[in-house]
Every structure is written in structure tokens, then in C-alpha cells.
Amino acid sequence: DKQEARQGEIAFKSASGKTGKVTVKQAAAEKPAGKSLKTAQDLKDFAAAVNSGDAAAIAAFDPDGDGIFKLEADIDFGGETIVPVGNGSYANATSYKGASFKKATFDGQNHVIDNYVITEATTANCAVGFFGILDSAVVKNVVVGPKAKVSTAVAEASHAGALVGCAWDSDLENCTNKGS
């Protein structure tokens, strides 16, 4: 995307009555490309940014600043164990602690995320899924493939799902789960 070229005029009049004008021009410029979500590594980097809470690292995946993060291709993790995006845990029925995907939109653009493993065996009150915890967020147009596997062996309460573990005031739109 390009920023449009623009120009403007500055008109002035001196104390003696002389007038003049200056035209100021700005050429078109490329918008910053930012980081894409096209590969398994991109998604792992995105999860790390969200989980760190580093606003600048998260914003790098959203160069236009609209709060919409877009998946650009089908992703196959090759059976790798990954960390959820928003890897916090819930404290009770109305709150959580740690990281969450918050006040943003993830648009999968109908791409498939597949062949990943997420396992939690030690953290009580865990929330496991591709997105561990959503808070006031939207996840839409995501397809979880049939090789995705999410599990928890925690004796205390836990939430698990192939796409989302736990969500507060969030929406899932047009998502498909073929994983387990």
C-alpha cells in the first residue's frame, strides 16, 4: 500500500502589502511493510510477541494500526509443539493472569492452521488452544486442520480447545475445527 502524494499552498502577505505563495509537495511513500503471518515461524514470533506483552513487537505485525492481524497463507507446523497465543491461565470465572490476545482481531482469511501440538501437564487452571486466552477479541475465518492436537492432563480445572482455550467477551466467527 502506498500513502498518496499530496501538496498544499501557503499564501502570505507582507506588512507592505506584497503577496506571495509557496507550494509544498510530498511524494507518495510506501507504507511500512511490517511483519507478515505467512509461515509457521511468523506465527511463533507473533505468539511470542503477544505473550511478552511488548506493544511494539505486537504492533510490528499490524503496520497500519487497525488492530486486525491477517493470516496470509495455510500453515503446517510439521507436528511441532507450540506455545499458545495468549498463554496465560484463568484465575476464576471472571479473570485470568498472564498473557492474552486482547482487544484485537485475528482474521485467518479462511486459511488452515494445522499439524501442531499443544500439551499442558503441569499448570493448574490452564487455558490451552492455538489461542490460550482471548479477551475482548475476535477470531474469524480460521480453519484448524485435522492434524492439530491439543491436550491437558492437569487434575485441576482447565480449558482446552483446538482453536481457543478460554475466552472473555470475545467472538469466534466463521471458524472450523477439524483438530482434536
Order of helices and strands: EEEEHHEEEEEEEEEEEEEE
Query: What percent of residues are in strands?
Result: over 45%
Structural class of the helix and strand makeup? Answer: mainly beta
Count of helix runs? 2
How do the strands and helices of this protein lay out in sequence?
Blueprint: E1 2-3, E2 6-13, E3 19-26, E4 29-30, H1 40-52, H2 55-59, E5 68-70, E6 75-81, E7 89-92, E8 95-97, E9 101-102, E10 105-120, E11 127-128, E12 131-135, E13 138-144, E14 149-152, E15 159-160, E16 164-168, E17 171-173, E18 176-177
Parallel strand pairs: 5-10, 6-10, 9-12, 10-13, 10-14, 11-15, 12-16, 13-17, 13-18
Antiparallel strand pairs: 1-4, 2-3, 7-8
Structure overview:
It is a single chain. The chain is mainly beta. The chain has two helices and 18 strands. The chain has helices at 40-52, 55-59, and strands at residues 2-3, 6-13, 19-26, 29-30, 68-70, 75-81, 89-92, 95-97, 101-102, 105-120, 127-128, 131-135, 138-144, 149-152, 159-160, 164-168, 171-173, 176-177. The strands form six sheets. Strands 5, 6, 10, 13, 14, 17 and 18 form a seven-stranded parallel sheet that branches. Strands 9-12-16 form a three-stranded parallel sheet, with no helix packed on it. It has a two-stranded antiparallel ribbon with strand order 1-4. A hairpin with a 5-residue loop joins β2 and β3 (19-26). The model has no long low-confidence stretch (mean pLDDT 87).
